[in-house]
Write a structure and sequence with these properties.
single chain, 71 residues, two-stranded antiparallel ribbon, 2 helices, 17% strand
């Protein structure tokens, strides 16, 4: 959601990356890690915070999950 992306950037100073709907969180993680490494935003061992909707099947895609993953 573009509003959430903008709020994260403004409120927390993050570099947001909006990812289109994926089948599951694992697919999203692969996409995020590949993007961050390719663009040299992060390097292996860095941590990334992921804000997402935990249920990709429901119509309301409000963020209700925060993950911290190591690249």
């Amino acid at each position: 959601n573009k509003i959430t992306v903008n709020q994260l950037y403004a409120s927390f100073g993050c570099v947001p990356l909006a990812v289109n709907d994926q089948k599951n969180i694992k697919d999203s993680l692969v996409l995020i890690k590949d993007y961050c490494l390719k663009k040299k935003v992060l390097k292996k061992g860095d941590k990334v915070v992921i804000v997402a909707c935990s249920n990709t099947d429901k119509k309301d895609k409000s963020a209700n999950m925060i993950l911290v993953e190591t690249i």
